[in-house]
Amino acid sequence: MLFVFTGNGKGKTTSALGQALRVVGQGGKVIIFQFIKSRSWPTGEEESLKVFGSKLRLIKGGRGFVGIMGDKLPFLVHKKAAGETLKRAKKEIFSKKYNLVVLDEINVALSLKLLSLAEVLKLVKSAPKGLDLILTGRGAPRELVKIADICTNFQEVKHPFQKGVWGKKGIEY
Predict the structure, then answer these.
(1) What does the alpha-carbon distance between residue 84 and residue 90 come to, in Å, rounded to a whole number?
(2) 85: nearest Cα among 65, 112, 104
(3) What pLDDT, in 10s, does the model give residues 129-154?
(4) Cα–Cα dist 56/23, whole Å
(5) Which is more confident, 157 or 72?
(6) Is the Cβ–Cβ distance between 42 and 114 less than 8 Å?
(7) 46 in Cβ contact with 79 (< 8 Å)
(8) What is the pLDDT of residues 38-71, one digit of tens each?
(9) Rounded to whole angstroms, how far apart are CA atoms 30 and 113?
(10) What is the mean pLDDT of residues 71-78?
């Protein structure tokens, strides 16, 4: 099954993590690849997921927020990291070791042109039968929405960011 979680509202990654917990709770295995978030930005989920060991793995492949929040890395560094993360994700998708693979913020990587839509579509369409995939991030391409089994658009109604308040530890990260 292909899930696409998109939109400007909060909760896309959180929703994917909830689905991951459900899979693990039913005896399955999950791997999550983060395409934007980096190891230099520690998150609450990163620490919490460690207790699941090999049942629920998190791979932070990004190099950080591209062009915002003080990012000074060249675009090509981000592009290379996204490409390497996708390559690693492909390997795990076809390993058949996992029941669920989450490609977190892959829609953002696509909208920033860090990845090719054609390559992602090819991967999604060729994924093994029985494997569930979740693709998260703002701005999901229409082509992904069209082939999704479940697509949820997270709509922002109100958020502290609108008043210039940065993310709160334990809530946003």
Answers:
(1) 10
(2) 104
(3) 999 999 999 999 999 999 999 999 99
(4) 9
(5) 157
(6) no
(7) no
(8) 888 788 889 899 999 999 999 999 888 876 667 6
(9) 27
(10) 83
Spatial CB neighbours of 80, under 8 Å, sequence gap ≥ 6: none
Nearest partner of 31 among 121, 139, 131, judged by Cα = 131
The pTM score is: 0.91
- Residue 73 pLDDT class (50, 70, 90 cuts): confident
Residue 24: pLDDT above 90? yes
User: What type of residue sits at position 11?
Assistant: G
34 DSSP β-pair partners: 60, 104
- Stretch (H or E) spanning 103: strand 100-104
User: Locate tokens 């999950």: which residue?
Assistant: 30
Non-local (6+) Cβ contacts of 132 within 8 A are 1, 2, 3, 23, 99, 100, 101
Spatial strand order in the sheet of 56-60: 56-60, 30-34, 100-104, 132-136, 2-6, 150-153
Distance CA 72, CA 74 (A): 7
Q: Which residue has the tokens 């490409």?
A: 83
